[in-house]
Amino acid sequence: MADQALSSAIPETSNTTTTNGHGEERTESVSEQVPELPAYLHAALKQLAPKEGFTEGNFTIEFDFGSSKGDGFVGQMFKATISEGDRREVYLCKIPPLDDARREQFSSMAAFAREVLVYDRFLPTIYEYQRAKGILGRDDGFFHTPRCYLAHCDETAQESVIIMEDLRLREFQLWNKHNIIDYAHGTLFMTHLGRLHAISLAMKRDQPERFAPFKLPNPFDPMLKADGPFRNMILSQLQMVIDALREQDTIERAKMEQLKEDVFDELARCGKAELAEPYAVVGHGDCWTNNMMFRYEEGIPKEIVLFDWQVMRYVTPVQDLMYFIFCCTDGEFRRKYYHEMIDIYYDSLSTMLTKLQHDASELFPRAVLDEQLLVFGRYGILMGMFLVPMMCTRNDELPDIEALAQKMTETQQLDESFFKTTESNQEAYATRIRSVVQDSIRYGYL
């Protein structure tokens, strides 16, 4: 069952910064303080307000927290309320980390530049492309992203802001990341992922020049540099997987020891679009449950919205599939539904290609999908070693990202795991990650 609501993650009391239309500010101190927010965020909201029908000089802007610890690494979220008289409108504002070290070490500005491209150009382009093909509604196509009011990035000035709707106001809810996804939610995700990938396959055939700007490289390649600060951390995360295996798991241990020898090459290989051509697509790149919300009718998920597009890249479609299946489900779910989930995805992709006036047997035959699953399927364990421990960790036990970033600044290395097992999560983590290894072997991916 989904979380009660994302709003439950927001503190009930906070420091409120108020800006009137003339730019004057006052701060009301209460128990949990909102940090001082950058001037460019205030400026962006003052620019947006008149476009939203507020009267210049007569509105106020108040800020509150927009997410909880662990909901984002390369950005921070704040809730802005613009008020004039009896009218109040709520917006979510995503900005780079306020901490200088965290912003630099986690390449936040590059990630924001990528996400701004998504909201400013990619999504409007694929929406227009679908409508030109006669696909007009959410029931038939992929229009499942938040409404974006403003997206701006200036990497040189270290300024970026994305202002979007608060989906909670339309009764969307965030799935509890500690829970295994269920069949209904998995089906909804696979259906819309198939539609999203189909648009890439069709559009690059119909309009290759228009599609070309969105063929972005793997954003994680810099992490794999021989002298990069993340290499020791990657090895540490992988060693956690090996340490979670039991003494009798001899095959699993041997496979993971071999992967340890090749892990950097494998991470790079799975991100090479040229190895997937001519079937590479624009993928979301971060398909876990914290980056999607659901709207329910009588307890049944009826609508999904995908957000957090900061690692969107041009790559094999298998990446998004493996990321979701191996990080958001467990061994029991995969035993029951693994092949069905792949079928749902492909059937949706095929149906969408037909609506876009193409033939799936030409643009992406099922046999090719099966082949690419074997070629790139180990991406599931490569991402699982990062995501599974986080999904098993309570929010109050998540690492201090600012402290890690500062350490990287001082030492140019990160010699530890992002997410360590604790007494409270060790058993849950070990069970989950062992099944990821076992299933990767079972399906021929490892």
TrEMBL record:
Pfam families: EcKL (PF02958). InterPro entries: CHK_kinase-like (IPR015897), EcKL (IPR004119), Kinase-like_dom_sf (IPR011009). Residues 162-355 form the CHK kinase-like domain. Gene3D superfamilies: 3.90.1200.10. Residues 1-33 are annotated as: Disordered. Residues 1-21 have a biased composition (Polar residues). This is AGAP012996-PA. It comes from Anopheles gambiae.
